[in-house]
Amino acid sequence: MAFDPRCPFCNSALPTPPLDGKLACPRCGEPVPAARWPIDTAVAAGEPPIHPRAQPQTPGIRKTAFLILGVMLTMAVVGLSYAIWTTKLRQSRHPWMPEKQAPITFRSPMQLSGLGYLPKGTQIVVGLQIAEWLEDKTGKQLLEEPRPALLDWVLRQITRSTSLKIDEIDHVVLASAFDAQLVLIVTTRQPYSPQKIAAVLQPAQTSVYQQKPLYDYSLKPLGEAMLWCVEERTLLYVLRLDAPKREHLSGLSATPRPMEELLPASLRAVLTERLPKHNLLWAVARLEQLGALNDWLPFVLGKQMKLGPIQEMKAFAIGLEPLDGLTLTGHFQMTDAKAAAKFKAMLAEVKIDGATSQKVETTPADAKEPWLTWQMRGDAAAVRALLDGSKK
């Protein structure tokens, strides 16, 4: 039976009923059973639910958490700072992890950093751009043994005294003022090891010059040398037939200098105007003062060299470039037209084994100081034959 909260007698709405018994209807006054009275839903049946009491927060948890985070952050900062500070030290202890080498690009002679270490008063400069040389397939064959005598002599002096490999050399510059001294400037692709140099040169005399290590040692089979470690990628050699002394370093510097301070204007002009842009091997000179050249060239080349034609020459620029195999181009400034004609006739008779082409040209005959150009093209064998003095 559905619950009906109205008076059965007068049909009026009834208030909340009593817990038991009957109540009179507020309208008609008749007694009404408790079952007909409405129930107050504000009071739920049964026992009230038990809610767990909230646990009070333990004092200091937030403070402790901030303290732990602060310690961790401090340790991270200190660890990162130490790692950055000791980067070079840790890298030096792992030689098996080489530095990434810069890509090799062809440079003109004036772009070589080694020129900044030339001695003052230089009259002849020879450049070996080894890094570019090794990148050229044909040119690389010239660096394979047996190498031409002069090239082999220079490279052996470097590798024997430093333990460097050829592919670790960037470029080499030889310079002289036509005295009894030859300066050799070696620039490496990566920093060299002073410890290896000290070990391989024993029992060399070790000292310090301008706060840089200096070694005095004997050349083999003849001559004496000084090796000056001026910069982590630059070595200066002073090669002499007699015993080297500290005053022989007076024209050198431990830091690079402008070309205007080192080379005469006439030689700078030859260097910048007469050489091709892409060189493997090059040489420039002003020959007004031959000096001790007669003593040095036979020693370097290992044979007697006739200087007759050179005595009528004022300047020259010779460059070997990787063009049509290998192309050797020489420009020679003669004292007069007669000397130019004589030298041209001599070059025209020279035939190099394996050369694919040879030609010689001169400037107009009425030029006051005529230039003569001689060019030879061929493979590595032809250039080796030329450098070794082999001809038909």
Summary?
The chain has 392 residues and is of the alpha+beta class. The protein is built from eleven helices and 14 strands.
Uncertain runs: 294-305
Give Rg in angstroms. 47 Å
Give the biggest beta sheet: 12 strands, antiparallel
Strand order of the largest sheet: 6-7-8-9-5-4-3-10-11-12-14-13
Q: Calculate the terminal CA-CA distance, rounded to whole Å.
A: 138 Å
**Strand portion, in percent?**
15-25%
Q: Name the helicity range.
A: 25-40%
Number of strands: 14
Oligomerization state of this entry?
single chain
- How would you spell out the order of helices and strands? EEHHEHHHEEHEEEEHHEHEEHEEH
Structural class: alpha+beta
Please tell me what the overall shape is.
Answer: elongated
The average pLDDT score comes to 80
| SS element count, helices | 11
Key descriptive features of the protein:
twelve-stranded antiparallel sheet; 14 strands; alpha+beta; single chain; two-stranded antiparallel sheet; 392 residues
Detail the topology: elements first, then pairings.
Elements: E1 22-24, E2 31-33, H1 61-85, H2 87-92, E3 124-128, H3 130-135, H4 137-140, H5 149-162, E4 169-176, E5 181-188, H6 194-200, E6 205-209, E7 212-218, E8 224-231, E9 234-240, H7 259-262, H8 265-273, E10 281-286, H9 293-301, E11 313-321, E12 326-334, H10 337-348, E13 355-362, E14 371-378, H11 380-387
Antiparallel strand pairs: 1-2, 3-4, 3-10, 4-5, 5-9, 6-7, 7-8, 8-9, 10-11, 11-12, 12-14, 13-14
